[in-house]
Design brief:
Blueprint (H helix, E strand, L loop, with lengths): L1 H18 L7 H27 L9 H16 L9 H14 L7 H24 L1
Helix pairs in contact: 1-2, 2-3, 4-5
Length: 133
């Protein structure tokens, strides 16, 4: 449990650090972010390997794990803040569209995507209003 918390904390701490920095990182910030991302990658891979050997489906290596590895390797060399240049939000949006589109009939897919995305956004706004009041 502590190892899982440390794995999640290291990624959260790296994101928090990147959110507070400009597009070009200071050397100290780049070194800290690299260290945190490296810890996260090592812990995640260790958990994935451990649970795979036990034949338990946890800590699966995801496609973005490879992107994290590339970011970790490049952050100290380039000192570019990846939070200013990444497209993770776009990928999430495309994933939402795909989730809606796979449940629609091909002849009405475009219409249904727009209708359901509008419904989903409306529901999120309604939930936000409810939570904030």
């Amino acid at each position: 449990m502590k190892g899982g918390a440390l794995c999640i904390w290291s990624l959260t701490a790296a994101i928090h650090k990147l959110d507070g920095c400009d597009i070009i990182l200071a050397s100290e910030d780049a070194a800290e972010v690299q260290s945190l991302l490296y810890q996260n990658i090592l812990l995640w891979q260790g958990f994935a390997q451990h649970y795979q050997s036990l034949n338990i489906k946890r800590w699966k290596l995801r496609p973005k794990h490879r992107d994290m590895e590339e970011i970790y390797k490049a952050v100290l060399r380039t000192k570019i803040n990846c939070r200013h240049t990444s497209c993770f939000q776009d990928e999430s949006y495309l994933g939402q569209i795909k989730q809606v589109a796979t449940h629609c009939h091909p002849s009405t897919v475009l219409l249904r995507i727009f209708q359901r995305i509008i419904l989903r956004l409306g529901q999120k706004w309604q939930d936000m209003r409810t939570v904030s009041s």
